[in-house]
Design a protein that fits this description.
The protein is α+β, with helices and mostly antiparallel strands. The protein has 37 helices and 35 strands. A hairpin with a 2-residue loop joins β16 and β17. α9 runs parallel beside α29. The longest helix has about 40 residues.
Length: about 1100
């Protein structure tokens, strides 16, 4: 501002290394060119140039249908099924004189099936539409013509609008951050819905706009934003803000993405840059897919060809019963009932959230039993979205007595006794004197050691080191305290869960962080001399932020005694080399403890400090400020180099160990799924280090497993990125990825024949190049030959692309599981999408095919319900083939006997009701209730699941075997029956069998045979199956009596045929018995042979 003698360096700029305006880089030179042509006029909605741009509205739709395309598009989906096309053709032909039966008997079932399926599609899409309506009608404050912020709906926002978003609200569009309630324009953003990460991201406004707060301050604000066109890259943004004739470079640090949440600040003001489907989140979305499971004669001698065609049409209808539409009806009924059993399974009910499992579609039940690859998110899916402080080493002494999930699994493998997991957790609460006592659990703190808890640390040999250790934890961070106005309880919002757990641990051990300003940090410390807690204030000088390159962070503070202190925490790989000669007293033991913690699946950080003298600090500060104000392209490298100089000669205090808490039962579930032959991939937006740690914790990675790491984090690539030559970067990156993939495949080739297993870890940048046409096949070959695969720093779109690559590359069933909006594309792309109803909202659940509350329930969903559903559906379909071939071929043999005249063997309504009343209910009972083994055995022997992965029960040999059995049954039924009645009196008066009686005799044999075949095929009998099997046979006789009593005009050949003819003849009963027994003998012989050998 005018009149200022010097520019003030604010806290947010200090720890983000951005005290001053960022220099323009080469990317900014592309503004106005192709892919960088977007222009936004801020707060100028009436500007004619803005109106001519015609950007998309902020209305978002994720539905598959709308009011105009539902009927044509849904009909298209229905008739993508070849069987439905066949039934439609048959229905059309049935209106002609060629039909051997009435058109109603084929058209009505077709209309019912298609109508019911369309109704189900409409209901599922309406659920998505309700979710869209809710999102589009959320409220946000927008700056209007009266120079005030007024509420409006999300869908009414336009590009260039000024909006105000309050704490814990979602951003309605992609916004350019102008200012926040913090004076220096910083805010914290939670991006869980976009990239799955729970740690908060720091965003900061440009200094030129950071002072805009009051409503009237925006009255004169006019600016133009020139930036990149809409794209899916969540981690990059290139643009320029033109204000008052000055150009200011924009980066991703100034962009607030739609569906991310504002945290820790009261409000922010921003201008809309991208709306609706142009936002980065929607650019990463994929369209809702369509997921399907993998199941009268006219004769003229002068016109023989035409007569043959007419007979073909007659046969088309006559033998349409071989593939009846009732098969679809029965399968749909079976699947719906199976879904109900999944929904009511008490073993998949999570009491803590009162949420059961839900089958949101019934189309994919049998696919649950054929899963070859699982692609899983990490945060909230495998973990509980929490980090817990469990152990530490201070002054060479290890503290913390709990056991991690990895330690329990290791102890079990070694046959050691393992304490109950509930006993190993640390349940603590604060007593009236400020100490911690055993009691309720504290989130982020799972530590138990009586030696240092409750203030007992003052009695330890190195009490002064312990004091410095926990004081460092309470000061060395960027967390912000949030006090509850009613209870006075303080909670912490931090950039990462690790950082929050450190602050909580310090609080529980007597060093409570209570207040932070831009210049001061206040603690409520336990004073070991007085035995009480006292308030101490520390002046905050500098915060040197953590980064993946630095692998450490530091703070510089001045205490009440005017001591200058540098407190530093970081990875052991960079910290031990920075220790002073006199600061290594506990280095050897600390290294040993860190190794033990790593083996236990814990994340470790080394804690150290040093005292600075005034002269040294002033000299460093001058150099540091000079580096920050530099406008060179390598400014960041210069700042890092200066920071590195002060982070030397440190004194070791100890190390922390935190557990990225897995959900209960995750390692055991993954072991079971792996034993079932299912490959598991973790595809996450988290950093590589985080994902690898979780891989070890959940047994996805093991100590004896060799790691193949594919990454672009190399000095050569980093140097090229600093130069900004995109073509050179792309060429070098592609060559690097190709080389790494070739080396990985070479390692696999060399290890063939050995027991060595490999784990593949690849980051998001590398994935983008691995998807290239010339690399994706070799990448997929490498990945599928590794025991485990972890994809890190993956964008939502990359998650979907990985899923598509695996699905199409392997040709096997893929299942994706996740809990956040960033997982939606992956869930929709997979053959089966499973959403976890966790803490990240319901977006994943709303887009999923199945929903569960915990990852461990996936074990039961696949190994039990998947196994059962696959067997049941396969058996039901094979049985349908059998019974319809057994029935249909009797028609064929009869027509052959009748010189292919088109004369049916049975009454019209016999044929119409065969698949509806007399044989369908037992098949439905088979599909719903049959079990080859119990649920306990399914879980005990996961290898049973392999029959679904290998598709044994629905393979061509199995299908052809059932079809052959049907042909054999039809041959025995027809020829035994017809030969039995030839030249044989049927009644006492000497009458032989006529056409009507022969049809009833064959039909009776068919009904008895196929139902008895069901009885000997079932593995698990219930009273319902007995009722349906024997009830179907009894209903056939009841139908003959009732239908035969109707006028002969309607009943035709069935008139009184049972009462007056068949029932009075012992011959009818004897033939039925002999033919049915003979028809069942071949299958019985096969089963006996199968059991014996």
């Amino acid at each position: 501002m005018p009149g200022r003698s010097s520019r003030r360096i604010r806290f947010s700029r200090l720890y983000s290394f951005s005290c001053f305006r960022s220099p323009f880089n080469d990317e900014h030179n592309q503004i106005g060119q192709k892919s960088f042509s977007r222009i936004v006029y801020c707060n100028e909605l009436d500007n004619p140039e803005q109106l001519q741009l015609r950007y998309r509205s902020n209305y978002v739709s994720t539905t598959k249908y709308n009011a105009f395309n539902f009927i044509p598009k849904s009909l298209f989906e229905q008739f993508r099924r070849v069987a439905n096309l066949y039934f439609l053709l048959v229905a059309c032909v049935s209106f002609s004189p060629l039909a051997p039966y009435t058109a109603t008997s084929i058209l009505a079932p077709l209309l019912v099936v298609i109508g019911a399926t369309m109704a189900k599609e409409a209901i599922e899409d309406w659920r998505r539409r309700k979710q869209d309506i809710e999102a589009n009608n959320r409220k946000v404050e927008v700056y209007d013509g009266d120079h005030n912020f007024q509420e409006t709906r999300w869908k009414k926002l336009q590009v260039g609008d000024l909006v105000k978003v309050y704490k814990n609200e979602y951003f309605p569009a992609d916004l350019l951050l102008l200012s926040s309630s913090y004076g220096d324009g910083i805010c914290y953003v939670e991006t869980t819905n976009l990239d799955g990460e729970t740690n908060l991201k720091v965003k900061h406004a440009l200094e030129v706009t950071a002072s805009l707060h009051a409503d009237d301050s925006f009255q004169q604000f006019k600016a133009v934003v020139k930036c990149e066109d809409p794209n899916e890259d969540l981690y990059a943004f290139v643009g320029t803000l033109i204000h008052d004739g000055q150009q200011h470079p924009l980066s991703v640090q100034q962009i607030l993405l739609r569906d991310s949440k504002l945290r820790n600040v009261d409000y922010v003001c921003g201008v809309v840059v991208f709306t609706g489907h142009d936002t980065k989140g929607m650019q990463n979305a994929t369209d809702p897919p369509s997921k399907r499971n993998k199941t009268t004669v006219f004769y003229d001698r002068k016109r023989e060809s035409l007569a043959a065609f007419f007979h073909f049409l007659t046969g088309l209808m006559l033998y349409g019963y071989l593939i009846p539409i009732s098969l679809y009806v029965s399968i749909e009924i079976v699947k719906v009932l199976q879904s109900i059993f999944i929904n009511q399974d008490q073993d998949m009910y999570y009491e803590d959230t009162d949420k059961p499992a839900r089958a949101r579609t019934s189309n994919l039940n049998e696919e649950l039993g054929q899963v070859h690859t699982i692609l899983s998110d990490k945060t909230g899916t495998l973990t509980c979205n929490s980090m817990e402080f469990v152990k530490c080493t201070i002054a060479g002494i290890a503290y913390g007595r709990g056991m991690t999930e990895v330690e329990r699994a290791l102890a079990k493998r070694k046959g050691k006794a393992v304490p109950d997991s509930g006993n190993s957790s640390s349940n603590v609460q604060e007593s009236s004197d400020g100490h911690t006592d055993l009691g309720k659990s504290i989130r982020g703190f799972n530590f138990k050691d009586e030696r240092i808890m409750n203030g007992h640390w003052v009695n330890e040999p190195h009490a002064n080191v312990i004091q410095k250790f926990f004081r460092a934890l309470a000061l060395c961070h960027t967390a912000i305290p949030d006090a509850n106005q009613e209870s006075g309880e303080i909670s912490y919002e931090a950039e990462s869960p690790d950082e929050a757990s450190f602050v909580i641990a310090a609080k529980e051990l007597g060093f409570e962080f209570v207040k932070r300003t831009q210049t001061d940090i206040s603690l409520h410390e336990f004073d070991h001399q007085s035995g009480r807690k006292i308030d101490r204030s520390y002046k905050l000088l500098y915060v040197l932020e953590f980064s993946s390159a630095r692998k450490r962070m530091s703070v510089m503070v001045k205490n009440a005694e005017n001591q200058l202190l540098l407190l530093c925490k970081g990875a052991d790989s960079v910290m031990f080399e920075r220790l002073s000669r006199n600061g290594r007293d506990f280095e050897a033991t600390t290294r040993d403890h860190i190794k033990q913690y790593a083996e236990a699946g814990l994340r470790t950080l080394v804690i150290s400090y040093r005292e600075l003298n005034e002269e040294e600090f002033r000299s460093w500060e001058e150099e540091f400020l000079k580096a920050q104000t530099s406008l060179n392209a390598d400014r960041d490298a210069m700042v890092d180099a200066v920071a590195d100089k002060i982070e030397r000669n440190l004194i070791l205090l100890g190390a922390t160990a935190v557990e990225d808490k897995l959900q209960k039962g995750v390692p055991e579930c993954i072991d079971k799924l792996a034993n079932a032959g299912i490959k598991i991939w973790v595809v996450t937006g988290d950093k590589m280090e985080t994902a690898i740690n979780i891989g070890y914790a959940c047994s996805l990675l093991r100590d004896d497993m060799k790691q193949i790491v594919v990454t672009l984090d190399s000095p050569e690539i980093n140097d090229l990125e600093k130069q900004g030559d995109k073509e050179a970067i792309a060429k070098a990156s592609s060559a690097s990825i190709s080389k790494q993939i070739i080396e990985g495949n070479s390692q696999l080739c060399l290890s063939r024949g050995s027991s060595t297993s490999f784990g593949l870890i690849i980051d998001g940048k590398s994935l983008s190049f691995a998807f290239n046409k010339n690399l994706k096949d070799s990448f997929l070959g490498l990945a599928i030959n590794c025991s485990s695969v972890i994809c890190c720093r993956s964008t939502p779109k990359q998650k979907a692309l990985v899923t598509r690559l695996v699905k199409k590359g392997t040709g096997k069933t893929t299942l994706a599981i996740g809990d956040g909006a960033n997982d939606v594309g992956m869930l929709q792309e997979a053959d089966i999408g499973v959403g976890i109803s966790g803490v990240e909202g319901m977006q994943a659940v709303m887009s999923s095919d199945f929903s569960i509350s915990r990852f461990r329930f996936l074990e039961r969903l696949l190994l039990v319900h998947g196994h059962w559903c696959y067997r049941r559906i396969s058996m039901t379909i094979c049985y349908f083939f059998y019974k319809n071939i057994a029935f249909g071929f009797t028609l064929y043999w009869f027509e052959a006997r009748a010189s292919f005249s088109g004369q049916p063997a049975y009454n019209d309504w016999y044929m119409s009701f065969y698949n509806v009343l007399f044989t369908s209910l037992p098949a439905i009972a088979l599909g719903v209730f049959d079990q080859d083994v119990s649920a306990q055995l399914c879980l005990k022997y996961p290898v049973l699941y392999n029959e679904g992965v290998q598709n044994i029960l629905f393979s061509w040999p199995r299908i052809l075997g059932w079809m052959l059995n049907g042909v054999i049954s039809s041959v025995i039924i027809f020829f035994f029956t017809t030969n039995a009645v030839v030249n044989q009196a049927f009644r006492r008066d000497g009458h032989v069998v006529d056409y009507e009686v022969l049809g009833v005799m064959m039909y009776t044999c068919v009904v008895w045979t196929v139902n008895c075949q069901m009885a000997i095929s079932i593995n698990y009998f219930t009273w319902i199956q007995h009722f349906f099997i024997w009830g179907s046979i009894a209903f056939w006789y009841a139908f003959l009596v009732v239908y035969g009593a109707v006028s002969p005009i309607i009943s035709t050949t069935a008139y009184q045929v049972l009462v007056e003819a068949c029932a009075l003849s012992p011959f009818y009963l004897l033939v039925t018995l002999l033919v049915v027994v003979s028809s069942l003998l071949p299958y019985l012989s096969y089963r006996i042979f199968q059991i014996q050998f």
